[in-house]
Amino acid sequence: MDTSAHDINCVLFDLDGTLLDTSYDFAYAMHLTCEHFNQKTLRYQDLRKTVSQGGLAMTKLAFPELEGEELEQRRQFFLDVYFNNIDRHTRIFPGLESGLEHLAKKDASWGIVTNKPTWLTEKLLQNVYFPSTPKTVICGDTLAVRKPFPEPMLLAAKECGSAPENCIYLGDHPRDIEAGINAKMMTGAALFGYLPEQAEDKDWPADLFFNTPYEISQFIENRF
């Protein structure tokens, strides 16, 4: 894709690991969960690499010997603890603030497409200040399918009043890039996020690569 010729008028963010650093609150909730079930606690760095894969993956990491109903019981306990401690340490990634402020100044459309369920997303966003309100928030259960299927991406573009080809989607997991490609959007890999350990260069056929949140802000300021 010729990114220089692409007319971008909408920025769409993945939530965990791209827009917000939620890892410390996930780690805190998992620490309490492990303590409750007398399980050895996880190293923060190990959990961080798993955040983008969702609650089940994090629970499996902490309780590898369990499956079925017992694993589900711990997953739900973990998510309940996380819900009740969802904004202790979560912040916009340092360096993104100037980009978000620029979008607000230009009255530009932006939104969020996440696989996080609505009940957690809404609680989290209640406690985060953005310079302007996202035009759309698409969650993992908004539609019958979620990323990497294109439907959530296409709905987000529609609600932002943009054509998919005029959107850029930023994410920290190969699934995010796949979703953007499936929706015919420009894609940007947030390499500062919660990258899965097994992710390789070939898994990231993104148009752009951002090593720091500040680089995303620079991109936004240059495009809008």
Automatic annotation (TrEMBL):
Gene3D superfamilies: HAD superfamily/HAD-like, Putative phosphatase, domain 2. GO terms for biological process: DNA repair. Keywords: Carbohydrate metabolism, Hydrolase, Magnesium, Metal-binding. GO terms for molecular function: metal ion binding; phosphoglycolate phosphatase activity. GO terms for cellular component: cytosol. Pfam families: HAD_2. PANTHER family: PHOSPHOGLYCOLATE PHOSPHATASE. This is HAD-IA family hydrolase. It comes from Thiomicrorhabdus xiamenensis.
